Amino acid sequence: MKRQFICLLLMMGCILLVSFELQAQGALGGELRVWKDSTGQFSIEAVFVRFADDQVVLLRNDNKKEITFSLAKLSLVDQQYVRKLISQKNGQLNNNLKCVDLSDLKGSLPLKAASSKQILKRTQDWERSSHNNPKWPAEGDRDVFGYPTVVKNVHGMNPDSKYYLYYAHHDPMSGIGCAVADKIEGPYTKVAIQHEEHGSWTDSQVLVNPNYRPAGPNPGGVAHFSSPCVVWNEDEQLWFLYFHYFNHFHGAWTADASVPGEGWQMTALATCPDLASHNWTIWMDPAKRKVSVWGIVPVLPTTDEEWMSGGSSYHAIQRLPMALPGRPDNPWLAFMRGTDVNTGKPTVGFATSSDGRNWNYFPENPVIAPGKRWTRGTNEFRPVFVGYLGKNGSGKHEYLVAWSEHPDPHVIYSKTTDFKSFQRDGRGYAEWPGPDGLASPWREGDRLYLFAGTFLHIIDLPVSRPR
Known about the structure:
2 domains, 467 residues, five-stranded antiparallel sheet, 28 strands, five-stranded mixed sheet, 3 helices, SH3 type barrels, mainly beta, disordered N terminus, Tachylectin-2, Chain A
């Protein structure tokens, strides 16, 4: 009798174990499949378990033990599979891909920030215009400083798990600066870069405009690098830094029938395999030297259409958790600010890419502009940030899109499934101040950190599960 009871307990335990494993697989949405590493030389049958801190945990089929991989070490097919899963599970989207995870929100994103604090101040000579500078003359203290973007150094070579904040201004001679912190909320300490190749001085610029002269003013120059946006490219194992540059050769650009638009300000790309090295390489092509200053490749050039004929700048770049309908191989999204060369008024459009280098603009652009049913009372619009909301009631992947409406920028939230039409938030504008450029989002736990201008705004999130 005792032996029969023990056998019954063992059978019940096996049934419960099988049931638990099936429930786990069902809850995770991950079927038993063959996983491969990036070299193709290693493979294993396993089920997806969870994703956290860029680590993928799998349950092996052979011994029922967990095994952990860095996402970047998996094959591209498996990376895409994980990205599709983690938006719906307990894992959080990778903040370094810039599309912030809001899929567990209960209700709407709060309009009010729980707190705001200034995190950036001008302390170095390069952080003001070179025009008539010695030493920062009174120039009305124009609000052209900040434009922050934040990433965490957990990818590539020599990851140190620190937070890197890139910033700029928009007066002549700006470069791209960098400050580093141990915690997302700071404090951020500006790095010290020795610029031997430019005449031996030290400041926080990781990208120096070639026309910059620290020894004195250069009132004849209007060159600048500005509006940085940094994203991790797992396919190339490189950090991508998008920024806009002033094109001195816009006259030659305009006269050349083979290039679009006026070409005044366009978006460039610099790459880096080791964030801590601060060694960025701007993508250049000698064939571009006749129409683009220093041979910079404009990865997001101006267009022949009026909405972006003068300037293609201040863009927010992100990698979505899955490709958009009709664009199965294009998970990269550019949230674009275009400037009409005639009016100088910016509107907003979108582009997709399969690699972050070659982009396809939406034929519907500009989609956030005067006369749209989802815009209000201004002819100036700017991108702010994008978040992923999960699947809606119709089973479609839904996104939060925030843009600002000028003058005195006010941020409005909206929802979309295709980035072509939008449902405007009926509660009205957000109560935290809108920036001139993008806001760089970061999610930790139940808090959303928005870096905008020279400030950090922290929003407490009502969420359905702890993170």
